[in-house]
Amino acid sequence: MKLIVIGDHREQLLDTLEVILKHWGYRVMVSSSAARVETLLCEMPVDLLIMGSRLLKEETSALKNALRKAVSRGTFPFILLRDEDATEFDNLAAAVLPVPVDVFSLFQLIQKYLEKIPRRNMRLTVQLPGMVSTGGEFRFAEVLSLSVQGMFLKNSSRLQKGDRVRVLFPLLGMKKEMELEGKVLYHILPGVENNYLEGVGIEFSDLSAEDDRLLETFIEKSFLGELEGAIPPPDPALENPPAGSEPPSLALKMKKTA
Q: Cα–Cα distance between 161 and 220 in angstroms, integer?
């Protein structure tokens, strides 16, 4: 299991990223101490480092030097969590994620640097009622996974690779219903190895900007809803910080940026 080390001064952000990355199947170690991060880099076979610019800026040069050596040797990729006013470490990083972190961008970078065959889009496991049509009447089906580019549809009809279809399904909790066009990319036949599941993978086509926005919003809200019980709530003391102190940063933002 690949190891991701995360260093940042914000405990809420560390907690949130740890839960998300563990949910995606990675081993994660987090710390708000630069010394602890340096120890982990020296003692553990790290596959990816994610680190905040402020922690790098405020600490001694030991960690910075260790990081520069590791980056120059290609020991592991380094993703920088950058605050708006801190750009001095951008040239060290393989990629930069502004804070608050966009969960879609995070997924794409994790896939890029840790997976041999990276997925382009974050996929959500769902159980949504749906209907599918190849030009005639709609037939009932069940949506089992969903991304901004397509879905996996549990269906017993003999849809074949290349078939053009229309799918209709609700965005539960948003009071919206989507009707989209797509193409069958593959057909899974029932068997012992897949618990006799039959279904098709569908790629959406000609999505409008509004369709894309609705899918992103539904996927992100549903994903964070799944993790809601696992992510510790923010410290109430940080909701009303003393006058003159730094306001708390949001861990994630709910809208993807270009």
A: 29
Q: Of 2, 5, 79, 20, which Cα lies nearest the Cα of 251?
A: 20
Q: Is the dihedral of CA 121, 123, 128, 130 positive or negative?
A: positive
Phi-psi region of 60 (alpha: psi -120 to 50; beta: other; left: phi over 0): beta
Q: Which of 207, 226, 250 is the last residue of a domain?
A: 207
Domain tally for the chain?
2
The verdict on 98 and 150 lying in the same domain is no
Final residue belonging to a domain, choices 114, 135, 154: 114
Interval 85-136: pLDDT, tens: 666 677 888 899 988 898 899 999 999 999 998 888 888 889 999 999 988 8
Global confidence as pTM: 0.76
Q: Residue 81 is part of which domain span?
A: 3-114
Q: Is the Cα dihedral 76, 79, 85, 90 positive or negative?
A: positive
Residue 163, helix vs strand vs coil:
coil
Question: At 170, is the secondary structure helix, strand, or coil?
Answer: strand
Residue 249 domain-assigned (yes or no) = no
